C-alpha cells in the first residue's frame, strides 16, 4: 500500500462584543482628544452620549455584504440594532474600566493592528491583481499542462474516517493491503467507524506530490492520506481525460495566478517584517532557529503542519481550490 503523506443571533452578538473591544482601542488611545472630535456624517440615532451616523450604518451593511438594492427595512433595522448594541456595550465596558485591564488593553491593540494590517494587504493585493495580463495567464496555462490540456479526472472508491490519536497501529496493519476490503476488515477489528463511497479527484486541483504518486500507481495500489481530523484510504478505479480550454481555462488560470500572487505577497511581507526587526534577550536565538522545510516528513503519527506538502488539506476528493466545471 502506498502512503501519500502529504448571521445567526448568537454569532452577531459575539461579533458585536469583539467590535466593541476594537472600538475601545480608539477611545483608549485618544482619550479626551477623541471625545472632542466632531461626529462626521448625518446623525440618525443617539445611544446615551454617543451618536450613530448614516455612514456607520452603511459600513455595517457593507461588512455584512448587503448591497444597496437589498436593504429592506427589516435588514436595516437589524443592522442598526447591532450598531446600537455595540455602542452600548462599549459604554458599559468603559464604565467598568475594562479598558484598563492589561489583557483587555492588549486585545484591543491587537484588534486595531489586525484591522489595519488586513486593510493594507487588501489594498496591496488589489493593486497587484488588477494588473494581471493575458500573457501571464497564457504562461501559467503552458506551465501547468496537468491542470489544462492534460487534465484528468480520477474516479476513486474511498473509505473515510476519523483517525485515532495514535495512527501508527492502523498504518502498520494496512501497509500490505491491496484492496479496500482488506482495509475495511482492519478498521472493523479496531472498532473505527468509517464510510465508504465513490468520489472524483481532479488533476487540476490536487497537490502536485499526490498527483505524481497517482501517475506512478500500480493496479493494486491503495493510497492513504491524512489531514487534520480526517483520513482516507482510496483506490483509483478509472481515469478520464478532461482537458480544460477556452474561457473556462482562462478564468481558472486567472484564479490560480491570483492565488500565487497572494502566497508570494505573504512571503514577501513576512521577510520584510523580519528583516526590520531587532530582538532582545534569548529571542534572537529562538527566531534564528531553522524552520522545517515545506514537505518535511512529520514524526510518525503526527499531523503535518498546515500548508505542508505533500499532504492535502482535506480528505480525498475534496479541495480548498475552486473546482473547474467538468
Describe this structure in words.
It is a single chain. Among the domains are: 7-115, no CATH class; 139-241. The model is unreliable at 4-17, 23-37 and 295-321 (pLDDT under 50). A five-stranded mixed beta sheet has the order 1-6-7-4-5. Strand 6 (223-227) and strand 7 (230-241) form a beta hairpin. Helices cover 49% and strands 14% of the residues. The longest helix has 30 residues, at 246-275. Helix 1 crosses helix 4, helix 2 (54-63) packs across helix 3 and helix 5 packs across helix 9. The protein has helices at 9-36, 54-63, 73-95, 102-129, 134-143, 168-174, 180-189, 208-215, 246-275, 283-288; strands at residues 2-3, 43-47, 50-53, 152-161, 194-202, 223-227, 230-241. The chain is extended, with a radius of gyration of 26 Å. It contains ten helices and seven strands. The relative contact order is 0.13.
Multimer state? single chain
**How many distinct helices?**
10
Uncertain parts? 4-17, 23-37, 295-321
The residue-averaged pLDDT reads: 83
Secondary structure tally: strands: 7
What best-fitting shape do the alpha-carbon axes yield?
A: extended
The helix content, as a percent range, equals 40-55%
Structural class: alpha+beta
Q: Largest beta sheet, briefly?
A: 5 strands, mixed
> H/E series, N to C?
EHEEHHHHEHHEHEEHH
* Proportion of strand residues: 5-15%
Main β-sheet, spatial strand arrangement: 1-6-7-4-5
Distance between the termini: 30 Å
Please give the radius of gyration in angstroms: 26 Å
Amino acid at each position: 500500500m502506498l502512503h501519500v503523506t502529504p448571521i445567526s443571533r448568537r454569532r452577531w452578538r459575539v461579533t458585536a462584543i469583539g467590535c466593541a473591544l476594537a472600538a475601545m482601542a480608539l477611545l483608549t488611545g485618544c482619550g479626551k482628544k477623541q471625545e472632542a472630535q466632531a461626529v462626521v456624517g448625518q446623525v440618525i440615532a443617539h445611544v446615551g452620549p454617543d451618536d450613530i451616523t448614516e455612514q456607520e450604518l452603511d459600513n455595517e451593511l457593507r461588512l455584512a455584504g448587503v448591497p444597496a438594492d437589498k436593504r429592506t427595512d427589516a435588514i436595516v433595522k437589524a443592522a442598526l440594532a447591532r450598531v446600537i448594541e455595540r455602542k452600548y456595550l462599549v459604554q458599559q465596558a468603559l464604565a467598568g474600566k475594562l479598558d484598563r485591564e492589561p489583557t483587555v488593553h492588549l486585545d484591543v491593540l491587537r484588534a486595531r493592528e489586525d484591522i489595519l494590517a488586513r486593510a493594507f494587504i487588501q489594498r496591496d493585493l488589489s493593486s497587484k491583481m488588477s494588473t494581471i495580463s493575458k500573457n501571464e495567464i497564457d504562461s501559467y496555462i503552458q506551465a501547468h499542462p496537468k491542470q489544462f490540456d492534460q487534465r484528468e479526472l480520477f474516479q476513486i472508491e474511498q473509505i473515510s474516517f476519523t483517525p485515532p490519536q495514535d495512527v501508527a497501529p492502523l498504518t502498520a496493519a494496512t501497509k500490505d493491503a491491496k484492496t479496500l476490503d482488506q482495509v475495511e476488515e482492519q478498521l472493523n477489528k479496531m472498532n473505527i467507524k468509517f464510510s465508504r463511497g465513490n468520489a472524483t479527484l481532479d488533476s487540476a486541483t490536487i497537490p502536485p506530490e499526490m498527483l505524481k504518486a497517482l501517475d506512478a500507481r500500480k493496479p493494486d495500489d491503495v493510497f492513504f492520506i491524512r489531514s487534520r481530523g480526517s483520513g482516507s484510504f482510496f483506490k483509483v478505479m478509472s481515469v478520464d481525460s478532461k482537458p480544460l480550454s477556452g474561457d473556462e481555462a482562462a478564468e481558472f488560470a486567472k484564479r490560480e495566478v491570483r492565488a500565487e500572487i497572494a502566497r508570494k505577497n505573504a512571503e514577501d511581507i513576512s521577510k520584510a517584517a523580519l528583516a526590520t526587526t531587532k530582538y532582545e534577550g534569548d529571542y534572537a536565538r529562538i527566531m534564528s532557529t531553522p524552520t522545517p522545510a515545506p514537505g518535511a516528513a512529520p514524526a510518525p503519527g503526527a499531523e503535518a503542519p498546515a500548508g505542508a506538502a505533500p499532504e492535502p488539506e482535506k480528505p480525498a476528493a475534496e479541495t480548498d481550490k475552486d473546482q473547474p466545471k467538468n
